[in-house]
Amino acid sequence: MERLLLVLATVCFLFGFAYSMYALGARVYRPSRLNLFAILTGFTFQSAFLVLRGHELRRCPLTSLFEVLIFLCWSMVIFYRLIGSAYRLSLLGAFTSPLVFVIQGVALLLPYHPPTLGRPPANPWLEMHAALSVVAYGAFALACVAGAMYLVQERQLKTHHIHSVFYRLPPIHDLAAANRRLIYAGFAFFTVGLFCGYMRGAAHDPLLRHAAVAIWFLYGSVLAASFWRRISPRRFALFSVAAFGAMLLTLWGIQFIPRPGL
Amino acid sequence: MEILCFGLSHHTAALDQRERFSIPDGEIGAAAAKLARLAGVGEAVIVSTCNRVEYYVGAEDLSRGFSAIAEFIESRSGAVDKSAFFSHDRANSVRHLFRVVCGLDSMVLGETEILGQVKKAYRTAHENGATSRNLNKLFQRAFNVAKEVRSKTNITRGSVSVGSVAVDLAEKIFGKLSHCRVMILGAGETSEMTAGALQARGVRGIFVANRSHERAIALAEKMGGRAIHFDSWAGEFHDVDILIGSTAAPHHVITREQIAPLMKARRDRPLFCIDLAVPRDIDPAVNDLDGVYLYDIDSLQAEADRSMAIRRQDLVVCDGMIERHVVEFQNWLEGAWRAAIHYSTAASGGIDPNPLVK
If exposure means fewest CB atoms within 10 Å of the residue's CB, which of B17, B63, B89, B303 is most exposed? Predict the structure, then answer.
C-alpha cells in the first residue's frame, strides 16, 4: 500500500514534468491548472505515505535514505506552494515537477526497506534535527531551481537572444526575491535543526558534524553578504545553484570516507 | 437563411475612403437596426473601426442581401465605388469573420484590439434588436474561435513594435511597473512615445532631462513628470529604474564609469536602459555591469521582428483551426435551416417541399 502511494505520487510528478516539457516545446506554455493539479495530487499521495510510515514507525519517517528523499521531495512541494503562490511563479512548478520526479524515482529504485519496529525509542531532539534539516534542504533545492531560472532569464536579457519561453518566465526581480527568501527560510530551518542536533545528547559523527557546520557557514556568509549588499542577485543565484550541488555531493560523498568506529 | 459579408478594409481601400464610409460609434446600433429592417434582410451587425467597415448580414438570399447593403450604404454615404469593397458569401463570410476576430486580417498580424471592437459592435447590434439566432450563433462562435486560437497558438505572442517590446522587457525585469520610475534623457518624439507606453502600464514617476531645459519642462508637464537639469541627472539616478536615452549627442552621454558607482547605491534593484538614439547615448559596455540590461534601437527592432516571424509561422495552424470551426458552423446553419423548413411545412399542413428534410 505504501509503495503504491509513492508510485502514484511519482506518476503525478511525471505527468507534471511531461506536460510542462510538451507545453514548453510547443511554445504554448501557460500556467496550467492541470500541472498544479498533478503536483497537488502527488503531494497528497506523498503526505499519505509519510503519515502511514510515521504511524508504523511511531516516529518521524527519516530512518533511511529512501525516507529522507521522500521527505525532501515533500518539503520542496510545500515551499513551491508557499513561494510560488506568493510570487506568481507558476512556472516554478514546471521546474519543480522534474526535480521531484527524479529524486522520488531514485528513491523508488533504492532497495525497499519495510518499516521495522523494535528500534530504540525516538529521541525528540534527533527527530527535530532530522526533520528540520530535510525541510531546509527542500528550501535550498527550490532556491537552486529559482536560481537556475534567474540565470537563464538573465542570460537571455543580457545577450538579447530571447526565446519564446522567456515570456513565460517570472520577472527576474521576483525570481531574485524568491531566491533570497528561500535561502533565508532554508537557513533558518537549518540553524534550528543544527541546534537540535547538538541538543540530542548522543554521540555525533564528527565528519558529518563538520560538514553540517561548513554548510551552515557557507550559506550564512553568503546571506550576510546579501544582507549588506555585497553580492549581486546574479552571484546570489549562481551561489544557490552551486551550493546546493556542493551540498548534495558532500552529503553523498561523505559516506564513502572511512571513519574509525563508524 | 444566408450569411454574407460586405465591406472595405485596409486591404482594399485607402484611408480617405475608409473615413468616408465609417460609421461613428454612437450611430452603429441604430444603423444596424435600420439595415436589419430592410426587405430581404433579417439580421445585421456593423463593424466600423479605423481599418475596416464591415457589414455582416443574415438574409433570405444572397442577391437580395447584397443589394440591400449597397442600397443602405448609398443612402448613407453616397455612391459606392465597388473596387474599394469586398464581398463574401456563405462559408467565406464566416471564415472572414473568424479571421478578423483572431487578428489574422489586421494590419498588425495577431493584434488583439479588433476582438474587443467586434464584441462591442455585436453587443450594440444585439441591444438594438438587430441580431437574431443565426448572427448570435455566428458571433458567439467567432469569439470562442478567437479565444481558442489565441490560447493554443503563438499568434499574439511577443510584441511587434519597438515601444511595446520595451514595455514587455520592462515587465519581465520588474514585474509590475507601478513601483518603477523612468528617466528620459533627451526630449525626443520616440522617447516620449516609449515613456508614454510605460506610463500606460502604470509607471510611478517620470523625470525628463534635456539640454534645452524649456523642452524638458514642456515634456515633463505633458507627461505629468518632473524636469531636471541635464547636468544633474546623476543626482536623481538612485531613484530611477528605467533610463531612456534619445539625445542628439554625437558621443556616449552615459558611460560604464559613470554607471558602475551609481549601481552600488541601488541596493540590488536592476536598471533597464533603453537607448533610442543614433548615434547611441549609452556606452554598450554598460550592459556588462551586473543588474544592468541595455537595449538599443536595433536590438529592440530585432526582437519585434522575431515576434512577428513567430506569429507568421503560426498562420497556417490558425487557418487550420478556423477551417474546422467554419465547417462546424456551416453544418449547424444547414441543420437549422432544414429544421426551420420542416417545422414550417408541418405547421402549414402542406406537402414538404424538400424531401431531404426528412
Answer: B63
Residue B268, exposed/middle/buried by CB under 10 A (0-12, 13-18, 19+)? middle
Residue B312 pLDDT > 50? yes
B175:A233 CB<8 A: no
Interface test with A, best of B148, B173, B296, B311 (most A CBs within 10 A): B173
Separation of alpha carbons A1 and A10, rounded Å: 14
Integer Cα distance of B110 and B105 in angstroms: 8
| Residue B50 is a catalytic residue | yes
Q: What share of chain B in percent tops pLDDT 90?
A: 61
Beta carbons of B172 and A27 less than 8 Å apart: no
Select from A173, A228, A236, A239 the residue whose CB has the most chain B CBs within 10 Å, as the one to mutate to test that interface. Answer: A173
B291 vs B271: CA distance, rounded Å: 6
Task: Check whether B34 has a pLDDT greater than 60.
Answer: yes
Residue B335 burial (10 A CB sphere; 0-12, 13-18, 19+): exposed
Rounded to whole angstroms, how far apart are CA atoms B331 and B327?
6
Pick the closest to residue A178 from A87, A240, A252 (CA basis): A87
What pLDDT, in 10s, does the model give residues A151-201?
989 999 999 887 766 666 788 988 898 888 889 999 999 999 989 888 876
Give the pLDDT of residue A32. 62
pTM tops 0.90:
no
Q: Look at strands B41-48 and B292-296 and give their pairing.
A: unpaired
What is the structure's pLDDT at A178?
86
- Tell me how far apart the alpha carbons of residues A5 and A231 are, in angstroms, rounded to a whole number: 43
Cβ pair A173:B173 closer than 8 A = yes
CB atoms within 10 A of CB B320: 10
pLDDT for position A115: 66
Amino acid at B123: R
∠ CA B175-B176-B181, rounded to 5°: 105
Q: Are A20 and A145 in contact (CB under 8 A)?
A: no
- The two most distant CA atoms of chain A are separated, in Å, by 61
Residue B304 · residue B162 · CB < 8 Å: yes
CB B2 within 8 A of CB B58: yes
Mean pLDDT (chain A) is 80
Q: What is the separation of C-alpha B122 from the centre of its chain, rounded to a whole number of angstroms? A: 17
- Calculate the CA dihedral of residues A15, A18, A22, A24 and round it to 10 degrees: 100
**Quick one: cell of B248?**
542628439
A171 → closest Cβ in B173, B264, B302 = B173
- C-alpha to C-alpha distance for B27 and A260, rounded to whole angstroms: 93
Q: Which residues contact B247 (CB under 8 A, 6 or more apart)?
A: B185, B186, B188, B210, B211, B253, B277, B281
